């Protein structure tokens, strides 16, 4: 047995805790003397609170306090104090700041009581009177007020045009133009947001649901005037997040406020309904115009996106930029504008921007391929490029052609007839669609610590999080292999501000960022061990050249001389050290970023069966072929892609947060009316990881797999629905009424 | 039959009197817990907040997600839709009670092996639900399993792996 773990399909190291109910999520921490909070949400979308009467709630035995804007006064309200790491430009929402209502279901009061049931009941007794103001929540009605999206948010890059798209479009032989609409979506992780805050001995301990413990630590420290060292945020398990944990949510502020004020531990959770009162994927309108030569050369791309934001912040994401890098094209015109509405600020949601923009672009590519009477896969291959034309740089690696080839083979694409409505299975029309996907391969600065004890156990830690992504497992694999000890002897810790600083867990950059830090720190420990091996008199390798030595399975040895060997624990004993502790930092190499563009890629093939009478769509098969550099763990990485594909199916066919503009509120704010796939909705999903070697992207050669799996799926399904039915449904989700072209409020479908 | 009319004061239902406490015996995983509870406590909150068995999860509190699934006398139910006082004396099994001593339930091992979860939040509910489904004896094919497991949402999208784990254990149990 050798200790080679990277790239092996290890089962999750946290699996046992998860299947036995021992894994502790934010609401699972037992605390003596715990009190419970329940939030009262505003019933209007905009206006002023004229009065709040809490007397009845307070009259109940066991109700401890009701917090409102009237009695929360002594906080520093400067907007900068509320600005978290993922905040866009603007003024962040400040709970209980004043009597202004800025969005529907805004928290207006917090009841604290001895039991959860009592807090919930008491919340129903609080009378809030409002002065309503007129509000507007429709993106489409406010398009005339759109403005250029400002910079300011982490990861946002403004679009860059090139050439002359309009002129090329005018002259082109083949062209299409179309509009695509997406409604808002909510993340809806299974775990409800919850925070437990404990104020003890002038120190605050907080159990929270978050994708960034440090982000919450700074946020709470800044708002409540506490030293960061006195604020500890703990979050060992996160029940899904998908971006919703990137910003501190209402309940964190509420729980801390009450715990500091009452000097009692407080747990505050959001209900599923209240989880529709914070960030969401924004509704968008996209306009595309593409043109091509008769041979199928893409001659122009015009892509405009109009996206909603709140009145108080400018949420931005990268929607249109992908259309400038995915295919070779001389003339590209891009535009990205925001429209302010009376809703909460949108928030990054799995593959923010790309999911939206790529669906529209990949549908438009399919529409143009159909005009050309060309196979849509051949059309894509024809316009393939190895250069990022926006930044005039090569890609560090791009095995997209292999994705197309291996995916098409597995799927059986060659048997496809270009004609729509050409395949049938009984009463079902069958359609096949394809789409491309791309996502950034980023790396962020990150720190990690390693502690090797005399008993041979290694504890590695970093304040990152594992939202189901497999972070615990891959970090354990990296540490065990780099140091050369058995995986059973390695424990990885995360989700605690007492651990070294890690970036927000998002953007598919955790494997690259934290993984590189873990690699570096374990290399440092290894060097120290080898130094002891050659500097300790009693060591069999005394005065050896340490670069000739290796460590495997906990044994230090010379590969060229099998006569000698010493275990890691023995060398520590001989050297008289009880433990070795190191902390290291790792970050991106700026030179590499200047020379290359780094993206992961995927090709998605989908088969749908559409009931001809009912218009219902069943996704019977999906093949997702991914090029994402080195795959650290094919088992957990495959799960990430499976999840992404399920999300793509969901986006294409099910998800939609419906705003009732009369109330300015998301009306389907629960899991029975906000549709996400259930078991029965999901059929065959095939995941392929194509070989992709990338020596420059980061020391591990990984690109991340959290988002690349979702990006192309909605496009592939929309294209398959067209191929099956001859109806092009441009507005997501693709529901039966749109397929049958009888949707009352939606006429944006065309049939051939 | 004579019609009786009664007048009911409904414009102000407010009362300072809170529901009275009742003694409830909850038998969970073979152990009896004597609790003083108000009748408005759900079985889910009794298990999590009053007894401290937090393996059972709350995902909606409305019977819409299945995260809170437990077994009551071998039948799977949504514990958020049940009041604790209604289950006085019943045999309740939660995720913490599925193992046989040190040995995991075969579904627990199969879930790990097939990576039938990502975040793991729906997992206790999925496993309890699958045990309940086996007890019902209605699942014969993969299609049956997909249908009968559709009350348990997995937002991470682990369905294909969940089904692989269930089918493997199902085959094993049937061969025994
Ligand atoms: S918490 Fe009971 S069904 Fe969702
Ligand atoms: S594993 Fe995350 S919801 Fe199922």
From TrEMBL, chain A:
Residues 20-134 form the Aldehyde oxidase/xanthine dehydrogenase a/b hammerhead domain. One of its GO terms (molecular function) is iron ion binding. Transmembrane segments: none annotated. It holds the Pfam family MoCoBD_2. This is Xanthine dehydrogenase family protein molybdopterin-binding subunit.
TrEMBL record, chain B:
The keyword Iron applies. Transmembrane segments: none annotated. Keywords: 2Fe-2S, Iron, Iron-sulfur, Metal-binding, Oxidoreductase. GO terms for molecular function: 2 iron, 2 sulfur cluster binding; metal ion binding; oxidoreductase activity, acting on the aldehyde or oxo group of donors. Gene3D superfamilies: 3.10.20.30, [2Fe-2S]-binding domain (1.10.150.120). Pfam families: Fer2 (PF00111), Fer2_2 (PF01799). Residues 22-98 form the 2Fe-2S ferredoxin-type domain. PANTHER family: OXIDOREDUCTASE WITH IRON-SULFUR SUBUNIT, OXIDOREDUCTASE, IRON-SULPHUR BINDING SUBUNIT-RELATED-RELATED. This is 2Fe-2S iron-sulfur cluster binding domain-containing protein. The lineage of its organism: Bacteria, Pseudomonadati, Bacteroidota, Cytophagia, Cytophagales.
């Amino acid at each position: 047995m050798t200790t080679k773990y990277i790239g092996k399909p290890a089962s999750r190291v946290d699996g046992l805790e998860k299947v036995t109910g021992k894994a502790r999520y934010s609401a699972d921490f037992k605390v003596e003397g715990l009190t419970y909070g329940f939030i009262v949400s505003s019933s209007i979308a905009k206006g002023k609170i004229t009065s709040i009467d809490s007397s009845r709630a307070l009259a109940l035995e066991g109700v401890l306090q009701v917090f409102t804007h009237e009695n929360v006064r002594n906080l520093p309200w400067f907007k900068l104090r509320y600005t978290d790491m993922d905040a866009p430009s603007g003024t962040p929402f400040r709970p209980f700041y004043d009597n202004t209502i800025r969005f529907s279901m805004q928290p207006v009061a917090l009841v604290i009581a001895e039991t959860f049931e009592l807090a919930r009941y008491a919340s129903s007794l609080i009378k809030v009177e409002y002065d309503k103001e007129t509000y507007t929540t429709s993106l489409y009605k406010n398009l005339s007020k759109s403005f250029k999206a400002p910079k300011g948010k982490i990861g946002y890059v403004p679009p860059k045009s090139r050439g002359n798209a309009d002129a090329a479009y005018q002259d082109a032989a083949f062209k299409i133009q179309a509009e695509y609409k997406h409604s808002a979506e909510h993340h809806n992780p299974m775990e409800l947001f919850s925070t437990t805050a404990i104020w003890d001995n002038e120190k605050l301990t907080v159990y929270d649901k978050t994708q960034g413990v440090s982000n919450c630590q700074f946020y709470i420290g800044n708002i409540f005037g506490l030293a960061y060292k006195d604020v500890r945020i703990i979050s060992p398990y996160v029940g899904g997040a998908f971006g919703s944990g990137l910003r501190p949510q209402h309940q964190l502020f509420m729980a801390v406020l009450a715990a500091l004020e009452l000097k009692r531990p407080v747990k505050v959770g959001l209900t599923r309904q209240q989880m529709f009162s914070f960030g969401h994927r924004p509704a968008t309108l996209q306009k595309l115009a593409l043109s091509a030569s008769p041979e199928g050369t893409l001659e122009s791309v015009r892509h405009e996106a109009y996206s909603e934001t709140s009145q108080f912040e400018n949420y931005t994401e990268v929607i249109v930029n992908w259309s400038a890098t995915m295919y070779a094209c001389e003339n590209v015109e891009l535009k990205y504008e925001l429209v302010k509405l009376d809703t909460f600020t949108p928030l990054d949601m799995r593959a923010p921007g790309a999911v939206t923009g790529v669906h529209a672009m990949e549908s438009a590519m399919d529409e143009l391929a159909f005009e050309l009477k060309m196979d849509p896969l051949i059309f894509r291959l024809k316009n393939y490029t190895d250069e990022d034309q926006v930044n005039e740089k090569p890609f560090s690696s791009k095995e997209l052609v292999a994705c197309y080839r291996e995916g098409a083979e597995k799927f059986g694409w060659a048997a496809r007839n270009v004609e729509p409505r050409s395949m049938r299975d009984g009463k079902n029309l069958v359609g096949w669609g394809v789409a491309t996907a791309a996502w950034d391969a980023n790396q962020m600065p990150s720190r990690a610590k390693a502690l090797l004890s005399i008993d041979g156990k290694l504890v590695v830690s970093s304040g990152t999080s594992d939202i189901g992504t497999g972070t615990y497992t891959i970090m354990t694999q990296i540490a065990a292999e780099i140091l050369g000890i058995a995986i059973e002897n390695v424990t990885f810790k995360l989700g605690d501000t007492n651990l070294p600083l890690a970036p927000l867990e998002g953007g598919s950059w955790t494997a690259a960022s934290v993984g590189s830090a873990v690699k570096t720190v374990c290399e440092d420990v290894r060097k120290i061990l080898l130094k002891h091996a050659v500097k300790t008199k009693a060591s069999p390798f005394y005065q050896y050249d340490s670069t000739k030595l290796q460590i495997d399975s906990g044994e230090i040895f010379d590969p060229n001389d099998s006569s000698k060997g010493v275990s890691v624990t023995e060398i520590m004993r001989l050297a008289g050290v009880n433990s070795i502790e190191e902390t290291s930092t790792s970050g991106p190499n700026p030179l590499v970023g200047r020379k290359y563009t780094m993206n992961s890629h995927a090709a998605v093939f989908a088969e749908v069966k559409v009931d001809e009478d009912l218009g219902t769509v069943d996704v019977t098969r999906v093949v997702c072929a991914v090029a994402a550099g080195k795959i650290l763990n094919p088992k957990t990485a495959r799960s990430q892609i499976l999840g992404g594909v399920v999300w793509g199916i969901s986006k294409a066919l099910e998800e939609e947060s419906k705003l009732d503009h009369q109330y300015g509120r998301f009306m389907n704010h629960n899991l029975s009316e906000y549709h996400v796939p259930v078991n029965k909705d999901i059929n065959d999903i095939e995941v392929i990881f194509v070989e992709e070697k990338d020596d420059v992207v980061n020391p591990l050669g990984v690109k991340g797999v959290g988002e690349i799996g979702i990006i192309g799926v909605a496009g592939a399904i929309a294209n398959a629905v067209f191929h099956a039915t001859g109806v092009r449904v441009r507005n997501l989700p693709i529901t039966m009424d749109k397929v049958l072209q009888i949707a009352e409020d939606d006429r944006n479908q065309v049939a051939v | 039959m004579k019609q009786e009319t009664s007048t009911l004061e409904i414009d102000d239902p407010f009362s300072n009197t809170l529901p009275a406490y009742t003694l409830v015996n909850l038998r969970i995983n073979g152990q009896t817990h004597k609790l003083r509870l108000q009748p408005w406590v759900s079985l889910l909150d009794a298990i999590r907040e009053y007894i401290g068995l937090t393996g059972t999860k709350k995902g909606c509190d409305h019977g819409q997600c299945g995260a809170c699934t437990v077994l009551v006398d071998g039948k799977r139910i949504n514990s958020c839709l049940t009041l604790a006082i209604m289950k006085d004396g019943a045999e309740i099994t939660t995720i913490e009670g599925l193992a046989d001593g040190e040995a995991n339930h075969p579904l627990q091992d199969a879930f790990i092996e097939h990576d039938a979860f990502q975040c793991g939040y729906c997992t206790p509910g999925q496993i309890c639900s699958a045990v309940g489904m086996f007890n019902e004896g209605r699942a014969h094919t993969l299609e049956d399993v997909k249908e009968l497991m559709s009350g348990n949402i997995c937002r991470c999208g682990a369905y294909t792996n969940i089904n692989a784990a269930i089918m493997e254990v199902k085959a094993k149990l049937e061969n025994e």
